[in-house]
Amino acid sequence: MTGLLALAAGVTVANIYYNQSLLVPMAHEFHATAAAAGTIAVATQLGYATGLLLLVPLGDAMDRRKLIVVSASGAAILLLGVALAPSLPLAIAASYVLGLICVTPQFIIPHAAGLAPAERRGHVVGIVMSGLLVGILCARTFAGFFGAWFGWRAVFVAGAVFTGSIAWLMSRLPPAPPARPIGYLRLLGSLPGVLRREPVLQRHGIIGGLGFAAFSVFWTTLGFYLSARPEHFGSRAVGLFGLVAVAGATVAPIAGRLSDRLSARVVNGASLVVLIIGFVAMGAADRSLIVLVAAVFLMDAGVQANQISNQARIYSLAPELRNRVTSVYMVMYFIGGALGSAIGAQAWARWQWTGVWGSAAGLAALAFIPLFLIRTSVDRPRTRPVPVAPG
């Protein structure tokens, strides 16, 4: 079951990352600047953040299997909408709605966390997250190569086929009803209280958002950097770097096991150091592509380990709040991603590659502030129950 959920998470999350390898050909077809084309990635991530806020809490009140099937089916339809977009504004609008509906992985991960015993929760989350992270990274590789061969629109059509197949497969799983039904408005009304009461969620939401912001700075601008090099690399090269990043994702299960044993300050702190080293090393990328390959590996290993440690902490708070905790955390996470995409597009337009890796390293360094300044009663995963909502 864990392996199947990991596969489903990887296939469905890929939908919001295809565009990052396709921004250059999309910009050419729509006669847009790099900054304007980058808005497609920003819109997708903002849409995803909206879906995380408005849709993911439903996992605490409805059958998660049904939510998985409906959201995956909707994402398949929206992928076709992006593929058929005749202009940049319509592509941006379709990308926003795609991001909004494509929250399937955030129903899958809390379900997997609920299947695991407390002492192995970090390890199980690490396995499912490995599938999700490989899906993110393979999305860029697949989009880069498939788009070079058949055009960027064909990538979204293929994604629709993959996602529709996952929806059919997930419909064959047993039902996963909630512990007890809760009204939708009450679900949304409880989110601010959950965040206010939980310093663990506050701390790791900020850390995760800043880490993903740094990550998005790089991936939003990589295609433009590679095409501007003397070799004038195309989308295939972006896809190859996606494969390098997949290798970095192999640290996820290891990070999960370490998160079960070590404090957040140790695991997150080490992850952020590795992440920053990777970005600083990118400053020498003009001298050798081998340096850039090594830097991408370090960057991805750091961001994945950071994310696994964050999720191992938040998923140990209260089982009945798992989807709402996921919603709050992932909204903060993808707001960070949208901010990083916007910063990356502007940094590239103004300062080129130096602005990209410098701003990414700076965002990652900011994550040390909440890691050491926001104190919690415990620095390890916990199982203390949390009130559902005031009153």
Keywords:
single chain; 391 residues; mainly alpha; 76% helix; 0% strand; disordered C terminus
Overall description:
Helix 10 packs antiparallel against helix 14 (289-314). The chain has helices at residues 2-13, 23-30, 34-54, 64-83, 88-101, 105-115, 121-150, 152-170, 184-197, 199-228, 235-248, 252-261, 264-281, 289-314, 322-366, 368-373. It is globular and about 60 Å long. It has 391 residues and is an all-alpha fold. It is built from 16 helices and no strands.
Oligomer: single chain
Report the biggest beta sheet as strand number plus sense, adding barrel if it closes. Answer: none
In percent, how helical is the residue content?
over 70%
Task: Give the total of beta strands.
Answer: 0
Estimated share of beta-strand residues: under 5%
Alpha carbon gap, first and last residue: 37 Å
The number of helices is: 16
Task: List low-confidence stretches.
Answer: 380-391
Secondary-structure element pattern, one letter each: HHHHHHHHHHHHHHHH
